[in-house]
Amino acid sequence: MTIHFEMHDDIAVLAADNPPVNALGWAVRQGLLDGITRAQAEGAKAIVIYGRGRTWFAGADIREFGKPLQEPSLPGLCNLVEACKIPVIAAMHGTALGGGLEIALGCHYRIAVPTAKMGFPEVHLGLLPGAGGTQRLPRVTGYEQAISLITSGRPIGAAKALDLGLVDKVEAGEPLALGLAYARELLAQGAGPRPVSQMPAPEAIDFDAAKAAVAKKARGQLSPVVAVEAIEASSKLAFAEGLAEERRLFMSLMETDQRQGMIHAFFSERQVSKQPDLAGVSPRDINSMGVIGGGTMGAGIATAALLAGLSVVLIEMTDDGAKAAKARIASNLAGALKRGKIDQAKHDAILNEALTCATDYAALGEADLIIEAVFEDMDVKKQVFAKLDAVAKPGAILASNTSYLNLDEIATTTSRPADVIGLHFFSPAHVMKLLEVVVGAQTAPEVIASGFALGKRLGKTSVRSGVCDGFIGNRMMFTYRTCADHMVLDGATPYQIDRVLEEFGFAMGLFAVGDLAGLDIGWANRKRLAPLRDPQERVPTYADKLCEAGHYGQKTGRGYYIYEGRAKVENPDVMPLVEAERLELGITPRSFSDAEILRRYMAAMVNEAAKIVGEGIARRPLDVDMVSLMGYGFPRYNGGPLKWADLQGLPALLDDIKSYAKEDAFFWTPAPLLEQLVAQGRTFDDLNKEAAQ
Ligand code: 3HC
Ligand code: NAI
Prior knowledge:
Blueprint: E1 3-8, E2 11-16, H1 26-41, E3 46-51, H2 74-82, E4 88-92, E5 95-97, H3 99-106, E6 109-112, E7 117-119, H4 133-141, H5 143-152, E8 156-157, H6 158-164, E9 169-170, H7 175-188, H8 207-218, H9 223-236, H10 239-254, H11 257-271, E10 288-292, H12 296-307, E11 311-315, H13 319-338, H14 344-354, E12 355-358, E13 369-372, H15 378-391, E14 397-400, H16 407-411, E15 420-425, E16 434-438, H17 445-457, E17 461-465, H18 473-490, H19 494-504, H20 510-517, H21 519-529, H22 542-548, E18 561-564, E19 567-570, H23 574-585, H24 594-614, H25 621-631, H26 641-648, H27 650-661, H28 672-680, H29 684-692
Parallel strand pairs: 2-3, 3-4, 4-6, 5-7, 6-9, 10-11, 10-13, 11-12, 13-14, 14-15, 16-17
Antiparallel strand pairs: 1-2, 7-8, 15-16, 18-19
Bound molecules: 3-hydroxybutanoyl-coenzyme A (3HC) and 1,4-dihydronicotinamide adenine dinucleotide.
1,4-dihydronicotinamide adenine dinucleotide (NAI) binds next to α12 and α15.
Organism: Pelagimonas varians
GO molecular function, one term: (3S)-3-hydroxyacyl-CoA dehydrogenase (NAD+) activity
Protein name: Fatty acid oxidation complex subunit alpha
């Protein structure tokens, strides 16, 4: 029973009971239909709908998407609610999202508690509101607000909803009691049904301009633009025809790869931090944190910890270094204050009480977890860990933020390798959502659980990685960067590649990202790897020459691009370096189509990702996808590299890799896992599903 029917005097109550979020699956829809019919048959004067548990309906049941529809459909149900001959009242708490808000709009009156949130997140699933939302919402809020709510997918609070007329009343209390009181009030006033569909559509706006503005922001994502088309239909068509047009557009989006990619992202985000092997393992308490090194990363990590309510002791090498670290953190906190993430009192308390910047490691004696973010150099890291071993209290967790280095080797310098873990944050660490939890050969289960618990507390999406050079994300990036460098040497330009990647949907092109992160980072890494390179490896050097010339990217004003304020133009020093290297190697440049650039780049990424999964560095394909989405600007609507690969078809991708291997067998060695999946006719998603069982 997912909908309970109760009579409260002459008011019928339909109580939704489908934990955890009252999703509108088939049984709930059928229950609502039965309840509405029964209420009228039993002579009720009004109907109150509310959700038991933590929320009103949080939307359609996403797990049903892509399967044959079972009647009653959600749009039909919304119409049925609206056509009810007695007033229907929505009493909302928790989250009224998507189809949930559409049911509420089908109701005649809406009341919400002050903490309720309402919104249309469908665009984030590659869809649009498909149960009348695009036709009813504008009739209530006008076009501008409807377009903003539907195309942003951002929920609003009850106060804003009241402002917009989306709810009639906001009152604190228990939803059932509020709904009943409101129903009685309405009956006393003689109020009858008030169908939104009978309200006139608002005056039309310039929809072409609205679509253009939304398309610009959407960066290749289809659903927000198609959503505006559906909203536009409400200005041109009668309500019923508008509904039909909305349905047509909804079903067209349902057929897209983008819908599949975004729903994969939705479920993977929730799946990724689940650790079945750690069931029953309790994390250690972490309330105070030590941070060694207060540069870019150390200051960001300290800020993230402070904002989450931890106390932080930060250690730098000199007093000046400690002062500079404190200034960096203060600047991060000022940003958080400006954006309303903290108030002045919290800001002051953090800066004056929760943070200590010092130079003496002895100050770390009480820290529950100590993370180092010192220079990326094995000797320096080892020295730091040896010192930590001496000062850290028993049971303290010793973490490294290393980007590439071997965690197990670092751990050998301590007497407690079971307490050592990698916590790889991304820059800026107080903003970026990704955390790679790097598990060493000897890391104890409760230390892993603690890493995940800390990630959760800091608001991060944590992904487990094994130890290898660069872990999941940087190892993949190293490979696709190499692929891009090969294409540049063979005739493409960094600017063509960046344009292709941005058109694919990456937030930034690869070379622009390098400029942002600092080209010296990659340079230092290439120097570290130089002695380890296989003689068969094709190693481009133009990027090193750019660094040798002092071009480190945004921090020096010049890299692949020249930066003046926020504008960037191509750096004319780059292509001569490339041309000189082509000449030296005897390469006659050829032209690359945009399609070939994308295909090779993605093939390199997928192939490396498949090796990472095959070697057990990532536990499942979805872990790799989440790293790419959360940390490397991979377009969410493509779901991640391995979801993208599934949608493209693995056999053709493997064929392409094999054809590229004819030019460079070393670089393009096919991943054994990819070969195996193709041979078995399976997909990466099959592996995800098997892991979930
Ligand atoms: N359908 C199916 N399962 C859902 C779901 C939905 N709409 N929403 C959440 N769930 C599941 C989650 O997958 C998770 O399952 P798990 O425990 O097995 O991992 C469980 O419910 C709890 O979800 P969260 O961990 O996300 O819980 P939170 O409390 O953090 O967040 C929430 C709650 C804000 C409701 C969040 O789950 C959410 O944003 N859900 C999606 C809402 C949404 O997109 N609704 C629109 C659906 S599309 C639609 O309605 C189409 C219509 O217009 C026709
Ligand atoms: P950075 O150069 O900005 O900061 C390093 C800081 O460590 C400096 O302030 C230095 O004074 C301090 N330091 C060095 N040795 C020390 C010691 N023995 N004791 C105390 N302080 C010491 O470097 P950044 O960029 O912050 O990187 C730090 C670490 O984080 C590196 O391992 C890097 O690979 C990793 N990382 C960097 C990312 C980035 O985007 N910059 C992203 C993720 C990880």
